[in-house]
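Example protein was shown:

_____
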Amino acid sequence: MTRRLRLLALGVALAMPPSARVPASPPPADTWPQWRGSDGLGIGTGVYPDTWSATEHIAWKTAIAGRGHSSPIVWGDRIFLTTSIEGAEIPGRTAPDHLGYDLKPGYLHPDSVGVDHTYTLKVLALNAGDGRLVWERTVHDGPVYDNRHRKNTYASATVVTDGRMVYASFESERLFAFDVDGNLKWEASFGGMAKAGLGPGTSPILYGGLLILQADLEMGAGSSILALDAVTGQHVWRTERTNRRSWATPLLVDAGGRTELLASGAEAVIAYDPKTGRELWRTDGTKSHPIPSIVAGHGLAFATAGSQAKVALAIRLGDVPDEERIAWRYNKGTAYVPSPILYGDHLYLMTDRGIVTCLDAKTGALVYEGGRVPVPATFTASPVAFDGKILLTSEDGDTFVMRAGPAHEIIRTNSLDEPVYASPALANGMVFIRGERYLFAIR
């Protein structure tokens, strides 16, 4: 089994050398170009609907074949997303050996499935105004490297765009760079990216002409964070990590005069210089598997996890003494999968069952805990927020509209009548929700 990443930049070698990288123009207003929006925090900047049903306020809905937990992203009149279509069974095909916590091979997660089928993986572009398919590209058709969690998919990483190019990561099944018209420009292979047979999930991000991907594997062997030239796919930098498998997406933050690239991890939360990959600082890790992504604000980053242990860490950014790096910690109320959301002065934690805890973001003081949605529910999607409201979307397809602030209040429940696992997107004055069968545009 491959432990170290093998980077093979394939496809075109464009005339522009890496040294001449020029970032694309800033995203247009009210857009959603990556996982959790333009700044990775899940906050919408426009005005969006907060009331709908399966038949009311639906601008359009488009059937999407297959499964995918990748969120839709939106730039101008285009929506981009990925999907995975299960094909024929491959009798006798098994997954590679995985390491257990004792570092011995032979570990098999009880919910690990999927490697005994073929899969067709696709990147799709739709018109944001009417939902019609603009183009689709099949990037893989055949066996996959490893299993996935039975609730996961092989299309769970959200794509990212700068308005000129679209980048889609399928981890072991390669990363692909298209222009916005669907022309393949380059692809990169990272070899087999083993994550205990639980599947992909980490999304790529863009910074200054670089495409950055966090790649934490198995029990740490071969883990890294790396940057490719966004135009050519050429390797720019790679920094080794010893962190075990993770599914969190890294976050870029303004740390008072410099940009820090934050990568969550069970063993350590680490900040890097995104231009070079140089480590800037490190501090306590989440201990549990880092599936939720970091959020940041008020000079702090907030890293959470909720599998083996429940933990929320408030971490000071910039140059501070190591002993002062952790501002506060809270050991209840965190989720295994959904990310937290920072909105105004409050940090909102939500368990996978939809129990909400609100903390003062600056001090960690408890504002309230035990806030509940009105019906029993399970959550995989992460919250998004706008206009003083936070949307919590359950696996049943119910979106609970929660009022932001120091008192827990569910304003209303909006139901789509089909399961939802992907996180919503907010753009063009609409809410986009990817359900099990359809992509919905709510106006």
